[in-house]
Structure prediction request, 360 residues.
Amino acid sequence: MHKKIALPLAVVLVLLITLSVGIPVSAAERTYQYDFEEDSSSDAFEDLLIYDFFDYKLPANTNSAATIQEEGDNQFLALEGYVSIRSWDEMQDYPYTFSLDIRQSVFNNIGFFVRGITPGEMTVMNPRNANKEQDFDYFEVDWYTQNGGKNGTTTIGGSGIFVFPQENAFRVGVKVYREDGLTISSEYYDFPLPEGFSYDNFYNLEFTDNGTEVSISVNDRLLSKILLTGPGKQYDTDNTTSFSYFETAEIQDASGNAVLTVQNTRVNSDASQLAIGVRNVALQIDNVSVSYEVPDHATPAPEEPDETEAPEETAAATPTSGADSEESDGFPLGLVIGIAVAAAVILCVIIIIAVKKKKK
Prediction:
């Protein structure tokens, strides 16, 4: 009798352990959302909820501003003058999505960046700017043609993949290394505006980055993909070796056709700073969102620098907490193992009791 009981129970035990071990252990997903509805028009940037995730820079003596404005029942962040907004930390190679709503009425010197490096990590003496140590912030031009560069163009920003909205196109490109100029230039491709698109209202721009492929969408319609290869590239003329770049970027259209292949990029291959650059123009943004997956063992939530590390133009402050943040965890591995062990113990007890009853 006990053999008849023991055999089926043993089979059940094996099945339970097998199924328990087979339960997928998913990563945690974090989402940070900023719609500015809880912010006040009197708040300094350091008091805004978005300061949890994004730092900013307003150059002194430029009449630049980043303020909350209200229109009807909606609040948004208005940028004016020379403004750089960039993530405190460079995102690691987790899959992430960076999304925001944008409204603009001008089409020059506005850029949105991913895969950048923190401005100031690489600097170059600029003879065309009173020998200033150029740190290539996202609102700053790269001074390429002004310093005799002949193998590229001058745009804002010093690194990363960018989108520059134009009046009749979305300009998608990458910052690149060149031996002339100040060694930083740009190459890009102009994609026609999507059918029916209008700048009259807010529109959505979204970047999705899995580490080697960046997808760019406008109003939920795929615009372009950038394939990145050859990580770890460094350039001998740079004054630092603390980071590296992808060697090649292939810009594709929405159908996967290559429209431009760029060598010697300045696209960060180690991590990704998210940024907005505005140079002496006005821009409104809303519904800024960053979501990403994190392995169960990692905790890469953004951390702010100490007061001594704060940018010169910003006052050090403890940011307000309370941004819309969502986190969804999968089954922890420890829980799965615990369930399997508990099931095994229970079944062993049942077997022992059955055997003892038989002997009686």
Notes: The first helix runs from residue 2 to 21. The first strand starts at residue 28 and ends at 34. The CA atoms of residues 139 and 277 lie 4 Å apart. The chain is about 15% helix and 40% strand.
